[in-house]
Specification:
The complex is a heterodimer of chains A (111) and B (114). In chain A, 0% of the residues lie in helices and 50% in strands. With 111 residues, chain A is mainly beta. Chain B has no helices and twelve strands. In chain B, strands 2, 5, 6, 10, 11 and 12 form a six-stranded mixed beta sheet that branches. The mean pLDDT of chain B is 94. Classes of the chains: A mainly beta (111), B mainly beta (114).
Chain lengths: 111, 114
């Protein structure tokens, strides 16, 4: 297994457009997390899945954000009607226990 | 509220020397996990070392070791024999036992001088 992968690595979009990111976790990991990281800051938690169930959502996850993990494998994070404030690195992590392993992230730029 | 503070935005070290990165955290929990992650430029975050709060012995991974002071809520990272490849952002992170997510500090940028 090559670790957590994310696609795309970079996304430039115009304000108001919808974007979707994909995360493929390490295959034996049943837990999946999304974080957002802005410049000069540490990652901030967005949401958590155990298998296919979304068990926790941060207050940072506004109504424009939705995440899914069908069949408990890969996950998608969609942002509708993007705003300039959504520009950030979106990180995915997976785990079997308390150690989280991160993907390379998707850098979103909203123009 | 759970907060993690890294008071050193930037640090530098001469190659082969030792450097210590500081981290303090605020919690009312008695059981939790602490981590140091390394994020090289334009590369993904890598777990460097972890510490379970119930363990009194400080964790060690090769050249990396921690000084865990539970009463002081301090969790510093010591890098011995620094190498050029150690240059990165280092993030301290905290996870309560009953929680699912990590709480991160703002990071310390480490520069290694040849």
């Amino acid at each position: 297994d090559t670790g957590v992968s994310q696609d795309p690595r970079h996304k430039i979009t115009k304000r108001g457009q919808n974007v979707t990111f994909r995360c493929d976790p390490i295959s034996e990991h049943n837990r999946l997390y999304w974080y957002r990281q802005t410049l000069g800051q540490g990652p901030e938690f967005l949401t958590y899945f155990q298998n296919e169930a979304q068990l926790e959502k941060s207050r940072l996850l506004s109504d424009r954000f939705s995440a899914e993990r069908p069949k408990g494998s890969f996950s998608t994070l969609e942002i509708q009607r993007t705003e300039q404030g959504d520009s950030a690195m979106y990180l995915c992590a997976s785990s079997w226990d308390y150690e989280q392993y991160f993907g390379p992230g998707t850098r979103l730029t909203v123009t | 509220a759970q907060t993690v503070t890294q008071s050193q935005p930037e640090m530098s070290v001469q190659e082969a020397e030792t450097v210590t990165l500081s981290c303090t955290y605020d919690t009312s929990e008695s059981d939790y996990y602490l981590f140091w992650y390394k994020q090289p430029p334009s590369r993904q975050m890598i777990l460097v070392i972890r510490q379970e709060a119930y363990k009194q012995q400080n964790a060690t991974e090769n050249r990396f070791s921690v000084n865990f002071q539970k009463a002081a809520k301090s969790f510093s990272l010591k890098i011995s024999d620094s190498q050029l490849g150690d240059a990165a952002m280092y993030f301290c992170a905290y996870r309560p036992t009953g929680a699912n997510n990590l709480f991160f500090g703002t990071g310390t940028r480490l520069t290694v001088i040849p």
